[in-house]
Design goal:
The complex is a heterodimer of chains A (254) and B (237).
Chain A lengths: L24 H14 L12 H8 L3 H13 L3 E4 L5 E4 L7 H10 L2 H25 L4 H14 L3 H18 L3 H20 L2 H21 L3 H29 L3
Chain B lengths: L4 H36 L13 H10 L6 E5 L12 E5 L7 E3 L17 H9 L3 E7 L7 E10 L5 E9 H11 L7 E4 L5 E4 L18 E6 L7 E5 L2
Antiparallel strand pairs in B: 1-2, 1-6, 2-3, 4-5, 5-6, 7-8, 7-10, 9-10
Classes of the chains: A mainly alpha (254), B alpha+beta (237).
Chain lengths: 254, 237
């Protein structure tokens, strides 16, 4: 470990919440940390760094961070121990019960889902366009092999992982550090929600053909087709989540 | 201008070659040193034995301060007794003391750094020759747009590790600008995929592919040579 207690050395940069203070920011920070735990960036038993350090890492005020940590404490995602060897520790996140997942989806406003979708589609679309212009050597082969790993996946976890790695690779092939960083933040947030609500139960054939379409466009060096394919896939997922969300609201589930 | 362009371009290529060769030669002699260190230690080697490898790595990093930002040893699968995969990597930013770089080496992890599948590792390992790879976005590694210069580390027991140095694209840009000393002609440093590594002009961007059929007429070309696999091309004035 490069720094005592802080399990993620090179990834703090990827956890930066969107800029700007505001009422939504603690919620945003809580969600970023939760996604980090969800995808395995932080594991059970990991100790979070001191609040002032973590706040500085995330680029937010300690006040905002404290609010976010309180939310996570209430949800049982972290626990805080006092005294020697104390601090805030990550608790194992057991698979959320379906009701908890539905509750989480319902908590998202439809407009927030749309907003996340817009940002995600734009970032991935932009990266796909550059990837089509810049792919060379074994880039396409690597991307194809990541799509193959998705097809070969047996569990939801494996699918999520393969899907994430596929999208990150688009940023890499685009030769864009910033877009890769943004893909990690935005795509993983949207995808974790998508896979969590059982998006993969019905949709993985759709994801598979979406991957294939994107690989083909990048191989053909067709920048506009790559961008369109990438954006459409994100929009499809947002559609699915919005349908579910509105369904939950209309049925009055809590 | 076009009359002496070939020679000045060749000289520029030689300067680039000289700087890269200095680093590759240093990596090579450090590799030999490391083979000796590990041969004297426990068999098979364990992670605890790597404390002996730290001084030559840090010394190498120090000698190339301002050019390479990180150096390290990436291990052949199962070479170490107590880890199937391992990277002993050190990094120094802006003259700060070097720090160890943690890499995620659990294949189950979302952001597993599968170095064995990366060109910077497998090319020198398989070819048993030094290799210069990139530029590439080293996600989960340096997280920068990077060029890696690496050499194989062949042990008597048959394992072949890789010793590498990371040079940010900015470092190569500085090298190019220092090496190309005269003339208004655009000069572009290309890798073996026709990808721009660096250029002296705002028109040609690092990471992009050079489309030969478009825009500029490339008057001259000079191979950087050796194990580097780069070439310099210069546009017509």
């Amino acid at each position: 470990m490069s720094r005592e207690g802080w399990a993620v050395s090179s990834f703090a940069a990827y956890l930066r919440p969107s800029a700007g203070d505001g009422p939504g920011l603690p919620h945003n920070v809580a969600r970023q940390l939760e996604t980090a735990i969800d995808v395995g960036l932080l594991s059970h038993g990991d100790r979070l760094p001191p609040e002032s350090e973590l706040a500085a890492e995330l680029g937010v005020s300690t006040g905002t961070l404290r609010q976010a940590l309180e939310t996570l404490r209430q949800r049982g995602v972290i626990e805080t121990r006092r005294g020697r060897g104390g601090g805030s520790f990550v608790r194992a996140v057991s698979k959320q019960a379906p009701e908890a997942v539905r509750h989480e989806l319902r908590e998202w406003g439809a407009d927030s889902l749309r907003d996340l979708g817009d940002a995600c589609a734009t970032v991935i679309g932009g990266a796909a366009r550059l990837a089509a212009q810049r792919a060379a050597g074994d880039d396409v082969e690597r991307l194809r092999s990541l799509a193959q790993q998705f097809r070969a996946a047996d569990t939801a976890d494996e699918r999520r992982r393969a899907d994430s790695r596929f999208h990150i690779e688009i940023g890499v092939i685009a030769h864009s550090v910033r877009l890769t960083q943004s893909i990690v933040q935005l795509h993983d947030e949207l995808a974790s929600l998508f896979w969590m609500v059982g998006g993969e139960a019905e949709h993985h054939p759709v994801t598979e053909s979406a991957h294939a379409e994107l690989v083909a466009a990048i191989e053909a060096a067709d920048a506009e087709a790559a961008r369109a394919a990438a954006m459409q896939n994100v929009e499809r997922r947002v559609q699915h989540l919005l349908d579910l969300h509105l369904d939950l609201v209309v049925r009055g589930e809590s | 201008m076009t009359d002496d362009a070939p020679e000045s371009l060749r000289r520029s290529a030689e300067r680039v070659r000289a700087r890269v060769d200095t680093l590759l030669a240093d990596l090579d002699s450090t590799a030999t040193e490391i083979v000796g260190i590990l041969a004297r230690g426990g068999r098979p080697p364990r992670r605890a034995d790597l404390a002996q490898v730290k001084p030559p790595l840090l010394a190498l990093l120090d000698r190339h301060r301002g050019f390479a930002q990180g150096v390290g040893l990436a291990f052949d699968e199962d070479h170490l007794a107590d880890a199937p995969r391992w990277m002993e990597w050190w990094r120094s930013d802006d003259g700060q003391p070097a720090h160890f770089v943690t890499h995620e080496l659990d294949p189950q992890h979302h952001y597993f750094y599968d170095y064995a599948s990366k060109e910077w590792f497998y090319r020198p390992q398989r070819s048993r020759r030094p290799a210069v790879t990139g530029p590439f976005v080293d996600f989960a590694g340096t997280n920068e747009h990077t060029v890696t210069m690496a050499v194989p580390v062949a042990h008597p027991d048959g394992f072949v590790d890789v010793l590498g140095a990371d040079v940010a694209v900015e470092g190569v840009e500085r090298l190019l600008l220092e090496s190309v000393r005269s003339g208004p002609a655009d000069t572009v440093l290309l890798n073996d995929h026709d990808r721009v590594v660096a250029s002296t002009s705002a028109r040609w961007w690092s990471g992009t592919l050079l489309r030969r059929d478009v825009d500029a007429h490339w008057a001259e070309s000079a191979e950087v040579g050796g194990d580097v696999g780069w070439r310099l091309v210069q546009a017509d004035v």
